[in-house]
Amino acid sequence: HQASGESAERNLAKFQEEQRFQRRMAIEFQLRKAILQGELRIVYQPVVDLNTSLMVGLECLIRWHNAELGEVSPSEFIPIAEETGVIHDIGEWVLREACLQNKLWQDAGLPAIFVAVNVSRCQFNDPRLSGMIEDILRETGLQPGYLELEITESLSMDAKLAEGALASLKRLGVRIAMDDFGTGYSSFGYLRDFPIDKMKIDQSFIKGLKHRHVNAVIVQTMITMAQHLGLAVVAEGVETEEELNILREYGCRYVQGYYFSRPVEFQQIENMLVHLS
Ligand code: C2E
Ligand code: MG
Ligand code: MG
Ligand code: MG
């Protein structure tokens, strides 16, 4: 009995691994055609200034709908795009799309806000990154002050290349935000070595802010540190009024999360901008 149980378990494990492999291959294959086939789009999540209760910016989040695979989450396909190198084309597409959209809103006379784009560590290892962004800004006509780049801490970022890339991006006038702050390997090292403008507190610290003392201490400390360093602070993943009130009390100025808005299509952002103006 036990022996056959073990072999059934082994078969199941093998089957599951096969399934994972198949899905990965399918994603890899379909992803290569996603841009050309127009399968990618961006949704936008408002960033709110607690001083004024107004939307001051947007985070651009990629979405992928494929006929065969359905909707695939970026948490699943971005790592595969990074491994296969497709991330360079996808990253460029998102940047151009975000800058263009923001410029169109500004040209339509709507209130000026910033767009924040997630940039993969692979893109920071590419020496052409800042040149590419300079080109996109020139082509779209968006002023660099309305573009923010979100980077995450990661071991595989080449520190020297990243430092060079960040320095030229800063010279362009683009802002740099450190995403998912507190979850990575070298949060403090990044703050010390890179010209960061903004700290985005990871949503895992916001969850349970009320009930977990350790989260409250960490969040308070991060906000204080950001203030001492002259950095803007954004709390990510704010879902309840309770979390919002605690963050306000701690002196956090910017928030983002389902409490205000989920990531939405550009038409909905347009409506919000019309109401703002
Ligand atoms: P991220 O940059 O940290 O983005 C925040 C994620 O949290 C988004 O998930 C967003 O939808 C979600 N979120 C926002 N507010 C709340 C909230 O109140 N509660 C909860 N539970 N979640 C909230 P999403 O869109 O699935 O993206 C996941 C990750 O994929 C992003 O994390 C980012 O690392 C990556 N990603 C998304 N778009 C891009 C892109 O264009 N380029 C690159 N390189 N990465 C991207
Ligand atoms: Mg982000
Ligand atoms: Mg984040
Ligand atoms: Mg994240």
TrEMBL record:
It comes from the Bacteria. The keyword Phosphoprotein applies. Residues 24-277 form the EAL domain. Keywords: Phosphoprotein. GO terms for molecular function: cyclic-guanylate-specific phosphodiesterase activity. One of its GO terms (biological process) is phosphorelay signal transduction system. This is EAL domain-containing protein. It comes from Paenibacillus whitsoniae.
